[in-house]
Amino acid sequence: MDLFIFLLVLFSILWTVTLILTSNSKARKSSKLPPGPYQFPIIGNILQLGPKTHQSLAQLSKTYGPLMSLKLGSITTIVVSSPETAKSVLQTHDLSFSSRTIPSAALALNHGGFSVVWLPVGNKWRQLRKICKEQMFSVSRLDSSQDLRKEKLEKLRDYVRKCCETGRVVDIGEAAFTMSLNLVSTTLFSKEIAQFGSDSSQEMKDVFWGVMKCIAKPNLADFFPILKSVDPQGIMKQNTIYFEKLFKIFDGFIDEKLKFRSTNNENEVHDLLDALLDLNQRDESELSRIDIKHLLLDLFVAAADTTSTTVEWAMTELLRNPRKMSRVKTEIEDIVGQNGQIKESDISKLPYLQAVVKETFRLHPVVPLLVPHKAEDDIEINGYIVPKNAQVLVNVWASGRDSNVWPNADVFMPERFLSHSEIDFRGKDFELIPFGAGRRICPGLPLAYRMVHLMVATFVHKFGWKLEDGKNLEEIDVTEKFGLTLQKAIPMKAFPIEM
Ligand code: HEM
Description:
Structural class: alpha+beta
Order of helices and strands: HHHEEHEHHHEHHHHHHHHEEEEHHHEEEE
Bound molecules: protoporphyrin IX containing FE
Distance between the termini: 47 Å
């Protein structure tokens, strides 16, 4: 809000100046920039973003088309809003668009210089992606850690069961967040880092939330990079505090692991942290301890909230559609029985559950504008020029709700993916790219795939769900809250009933 008041004041001062400046639509025409709304001097189109930026941009693109240009402060921003144009950017010209525009909050503790999320495509970034792919997300790596994840899912089931017994409501997003942190920490270093309802876990979660808020918060220093060193809203300073807290926690895990390795020759579980420490001990210059901490930071921030928010949206839609919820339940029972526990290898036998997850990604992509890309050169697309250094936002939320692409686009209909099961979200079908596509596609997709299906299945398989007293299905709120991830504005809470 402080940002907007500041901008409004700035805007009124500048309004008079506007009258004596030449029309910028002429400038746009002569430079062949894609069309877009009128850009006010200095602030450009910042005020048109609104609190639900993805929706405002989708609305504007209905007037200006699937390749639209805006000015956000001094940053030229190109917004892509159709599958065809997304394909031009992320496939045809993938390399030219594979860099990032970095929010200044992500520069705290020089994170941008170490981070797989923010580094430009180059040797360092390739090395980190290779480590992720080979040491963490390969099928063999994921298969070898699946029993640990299974154990954690049992804890989720026990927690929900306890809520049944005590008549407590379950905050589904919150439970899924705790679970996601643990599934990731277990996969990374065979250790649980959060417990349901504990104070220390809450503290840890608050730090992760804090980081995400800092990165998502509208920041004058991002709109006017000249202000970066001033940090006018103190966002970078705040994020430095959060990063330092997380690094202290990671230092603890690394020290514990090093101690364990020095006293146990036969290290049974060789997890990601072992693999990273092996690399570090082989050649410190290849992967330093600082590199390891920045990588862990990236993986937790990228993984936990995206996964849990997707699960919360899936459960929200199933609660609004009890017949679809029953269909998922019946399908799981047919495969694993009433008392069995679903395994990761069962997912491929559950086409309706898979369709529910795809439909959730279509309607509620949790990273609605992907992570900002950046043009490395002037690139021609659809007859327009995307200029070098422009920030490029791909509005996957808009494509997911486009009625020219999807019949009954606003309706939750997993069945559409039963008749079109070939449509997938692994970056080849540009109408459904919740994980992005091309070089920068989410490296965590294979783990996210397993976690989302398993968590939804765990919530549904052995429990029925009842809304809070007196609430009807129609009253389940689906208002979105825009941020680093697209959250539910009102958390989804419901009472579990053991079946
Ligand atoms: C990047 C989505 C889970 C790690 C991304 C991007 C998206 C995304 C949209 C940016 C793609 C682009 O800019 O084109 C999701 C969704 C998830 C999920 C929807 C869950 C439902 C995970 C998990 C991990 C992870 C579980 C790791 C444990 C990363 C990393 C990047 C990334 C490291 C940066 C890659 C790069 O810039 O090279 N993710 N993600 N994500 N994701 Fe995920």
